[in-house]
Amino acid sequence: MTIVWTEADLPRPPDGAGLPMQQHPTHGAVCAALGRSVRWLDWHENGKVLGSAQVLSRNWSLVGRVALISRGPVFAPDLPEGALRDAHAALINGLRADHRGVIVTPEPVAGVDPAAGGPWLSMMTGGHVARLSLGSDACTLRAGLHQKWRNRLRRSESAGLTLAEGPLPDDPAHWLLREEAAQARARRYGRLPPAYALAWARAGETLLVSAHAGGRPVAGMLFLIHPPWASYHLGWTSAAGRAANAHNLIMWRAILALKAQGLTALELGLLDTENAPDLARFKLGTGAEGVPLGATTLDAPGSQAVAALARAAAFALSRISR
Question: Phi then psi for 46, rounded to 5 degrees?
């Protein structure tokens, strides 16, 4: 079977597939507003969409035009393994026609990484993302909280905090963006710029949940909504917020609010148990599961030869170590 990916007006995820933030049309609109080139491709047979891909392109000095597919392509959940790998290869080959390089981090399907065993150069092994299903009722979700997490939530519920919910205001000087930016500088972690959150609020839906004490904010979290899922985007807490376990209360309120909107899952970001173990425990304490992501691979001039050499060297080492 010849697999052909065709241009689309917008990404159309296959039936039954989730839609990560990086593959949602709002992400594409935000990236376009920030100066990135965006295009959409899909693969369909007999009128049924079997795969979709949102592709960002940019020119790299000394390299040329490079395509990036992050958390995609998104495939139908019932695809056989052979068709999955063939479709992934066809997408990369098609993009190479007008790009010097293609970088892809695919979504696994039923535990299968579409790029596994392919000729491409591996840039990074797949990590894990924390994903919480919102399909259960509120009582079941609360029962699914880890005991220490639930105990902190109880203490926070009796701490006298006032909560507020709503969309992120179109204000570059908003206190949460300002405080989180200072926090990022102090802790030296990378993240998307505040302009990304503001552009998302203009193009799509957001949920801002904040906790206040004495009329002042002590903690806040921002969530980006990309039906049928949502994603945690950024957060900040003060010393008073930490003492009151405000983030547990804020997260719980957000879970209930997002579920009430009919969303089916909440992604809480990558799990880094080595460099950020406390944050990983907080995410998993919600009852979220660690979901594997596909490896990041590169296809560019010479990359397949380098990949072949690396595989040969690994095979030789495995024989020597026996």
Answer: 55, 40
Annotate 182-236 with DSSP letters as a single string. Answer: HHHHHHT-----HHHHHHHHHHSEEEEEEEEETTEEEEEEEEEEETTEEEEEEEE
For residue 208 the two structure tokens come to 């801002």
- Beta strands 64-70 and 101-105 are parallel
Structure-block tokens of residue 52? 């979709």
97-113 b/e (C-beta count within 10 Å ≥ 16 → b)? eebebbbbbbbbbeebb
Backbone φ and ψ of 228, nearest 5°: -90, 10
Q: Per residue in 173-223, pLDDT tens?
A: 999 999 999 999 998 888 899 999 999 999 999 999 999 999 999 999 999
Options 1.20.120, 3.40.1350, 3.40.630, 1.25.40; CATH of 6-126+293-320: 3.40.630
In angstroms, the CA 95 to CA 56 distance is 11
CATH of 130-292, one of 3.30.1490.480, 3.40.50.1980, 3.40.630.30, 3.40.50.720: 3.40.630.30
* Distance, CA of 68 to CA of 132 (rounded, Å): 26
Which two structure tokens, joined as six digits, stand for 298? 């590169």
pLDDT at residue number 143: 97
3-state secondary structure of 41: strand
pLDDT of residue 60: 83
CB 67 within 8 A of CB 55: yes
Strand, helix or coil for residue 132:
strand
**Residue segments in the chain with a per-residue pLDDT below the cut of 70:** 1, 302-322
d(CA 106, CA 97) in angstroms, rounded, equals 20
Q: What are the strands, taking DSSP E only, across 71-169?
A: 74-75, 101-105, 121-124, 128-133, 162-166
Q: Is the entire prediction scored with pTM above 0.85?
A: yes
Which pLDDT does position 306 carry in this prediction? Answer: 55
Contact yes or no for 12/52 (Cβ under 8 A): yes
Q: Which amino acid is at 204?
A: G
Whole-number pLDDT of residue 304:
64
